[in-house]
């Protein structure tokens, strides 16, 4: 449908930035995934991402630069992942999820905006991992959140409880249990400078 709309335009845009997801890569606790050596998995969400990108890449574009953003969890003041995590911490449930060893790839809202501007103004083309250069383990992330909100401790959520809760609200446990260890190799190599590379600095900024 988007391709049909594009073909009906009299003046084609110079660049088309298409959102995808860093969840295209497999669960990884053994090594980071970048655009060159990242392994694309074959479960439901990975297949959706793969087919989404394949369809976009097959569209015949008339001189339009084609860019894909494989975006991780976004941390924002009023949206994204931070508000629900904040509520968990405040209600004393801000411990680790599952075993807490899964990697969390994330990005500050200001870097999302900065990267889009960078892609529009430069020569970016192809797929980019749009994540912070410093992924963090789930248990360490929750520790930073508790510290930021002045909460001493948080009850952990074991995998079986998350599975039960996810079934109640019709979602998937992979949102918190999948280890997303994704590195923005191309952004770093091509010169984008992150405003908030570390989770600690990002949380401090978003919660002040």
Strand content: 5-15%
Total count of helical runs of at least 4 residues:
9
Let me know the average pLDDT.
90
End-to-end gap: 42 Å
Percent range of helical residues: 25-40%
3D shape: globular
Low-confidence region ranges: none
Radius of gyration using CA atoms only: 18 Å
The helix/strand class is alpha/beta
Biggest β-sheet strands, sense, barrel? 3 strands, parallel
Strand order of the largest sheet: 1-2-6
Number of strands: 7
Could you state the order of secondary-structure elements as H and E? Answer: HEHEEHEEHEEHHHHH
Q: How would you describe this protein?
A:
With 208 residues, this protein is of the alpha/beta class. The protein is built from 9 helices and 7 strands. The strands form 3 sheets. Strands 1-2-6 form a 3-stranded parallel β-sheet, with helices on both faces. It has a two-stranded parallel ribbon with strand order 3-5. A two-stranded antiparallel sheet has the order 4-7. It is globular.
């Amino acid at each position: 449908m988007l391709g049909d709309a594009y073909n009906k335009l009299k003046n084609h845009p110079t660049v088309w930035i298409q959102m995808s997801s860093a969840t295209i890569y497999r669960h990884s606790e053994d090594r980071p995934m970048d655009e060159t050596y990242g392994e694309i998995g074959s479960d439901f969400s990975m297949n959706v991402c793969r087919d989404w990108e394949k369809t976009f890449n097959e569209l015949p574009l008339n001189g339009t630069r084609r860019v894909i953003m494989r975006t991780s969890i976004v941390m924002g003041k009023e949206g994204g992942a931070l508000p629900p995590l904040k509520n968990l911490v405040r209600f004393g449930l801000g411990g680790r999820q599952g075993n807490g060893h899964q990697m969390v790839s994330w990005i500050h809202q200001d870097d999302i905006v900065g990267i889009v501007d960078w892609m529009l103004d430069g020569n970016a083309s192809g797929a980019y991992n749009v994540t912070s250069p410093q992924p963090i383990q789930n248990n360490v992330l929750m520790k930073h959140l508790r510290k930021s909100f002045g909460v001493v401790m948080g009850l952990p959520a074991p995998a079986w409880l998350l599975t039960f809760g996810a079934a109640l609200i019709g979602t998937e446990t992979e949102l918190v249990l999948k280890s997303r260890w994704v590195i923005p190799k191309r952004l770093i190599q091509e010169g984008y400078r992150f405003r908030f590379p570390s989770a600690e600095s990002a949380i401090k900024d978003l919660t002040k």
